[in-house]
Amino acid sequence: MSDDWNMAIDAPAPPNATQKPLAPALSASTGVEATVAGETRVIFGGCNYLGLAHHPRVIEALREAAGIYGISTGASRTTTGNTLAHEQLEERLARFFSAARPGHTVACTIDGLTANMAAFEALAERRTEAVIDERAHRSLVVAARAAGLQVNLYRHLDVGHAVELAERDPAGTVIATDTVFASTGHIADLASLVRSAPNDVGFLFDECHGVGVIGDGGRGVAIALGVTDDRVVITSTLAKAIGAHGGFVLATSDCIRRIRSTATAFVGTTPVSPALAAAATEAIDIIDQEPDRVRRLQDRASRLTAGVALYADARVPAGFAWHTPIAAVAFAPDDAMTRVRMRLTERGLSVPLVSYPGGPAPSYFRLSVTSEHTAEQVDQAIACFAEEADDR
Ligand SMILES: Cc1ncc(COP(=O)(O)O)c(C=O)c1O
User: Which residues surround ligand 1 with Cβ inside 6 Å?
Assistant: First the structure.
């Protein structure tokens, strides 16, 4: 089996590249297996954590809604582009979180990026400053700046530093962070953050890698940690564990009303396709009806975590009971990484080699598992790393 597949899809940008190359185009994907140039590999990458992007009921819901509404509404939801599919999705999401966040409502956006934009636009009516984890997803920084907030970065996962920066003007400040960091699987200690910050501070937690993944029934890190008060605004995507496309903000009804009436990221855009809204609603039903899916993901995630524990860069709050399905692994020197790639290739596996800032090395393997990987497949990937460690 040639190594072109892995090399091509995983290759980091050359140092002098002005533009990050795209990965080679997939010609087919089942979520667990993907095909490039006629060659199919078991892939440990991406964020389709519950396999819902390929679920027959989700695909059927999309088809049916496309037949009813067409593909695009062709207009903003404030003019002629509102559909029952969008309203049903917002109601379904609010119900998904309602046990932990009663009375909180939802506004859907085009994606996770615009969810952050809409949330910061609403928060900027009362706040002037965003204090953001230095390794947070760049959409948080971009969205805060777009909303006119002054951005100050705190050291990664450093609650004390975040609080110190927020104390300068608590009533004017929003502390924002990813709950699960996409490239390393690190989990932010939201409970400690909320407990330690002054009462007037607001919070925006990006749960793009938490919803569907962490906590009972996949309600996310904030709910798993009991962080549910009115000061906390949650944003997330519908394109990862939910398996569809779109984004949403979960907050008090007052905050959601402001988003719906004034946020450009909501008012000034054509919403996500009604077909995708219906697909997302179906996916959330499946998460509730098939609780084993989240449990299976947790099983694979704990298997991965245990299997690479000796050489992965893992950071979770003390005593946290949930495992992240993401592991960041690096070996020095470079030829060790090459040997791991060869082992993966020989077994027909692919793990993206990424070069995001903030990882354990300039380039490292970002492994992710889904509920649809078998335990044996996870073990095979782990073995490629264990063999390298054994040979040292
Ligand atoms: C932490 C985080 N926030 C926001 C986003 C943006 O979400 P979307 O892809 O739906 O725009 C992503 C997507 O990669 C993400 O990982």
Answer: 111-113, 137, 139, 178, 182, 206, 208-209, 237, 239, 247
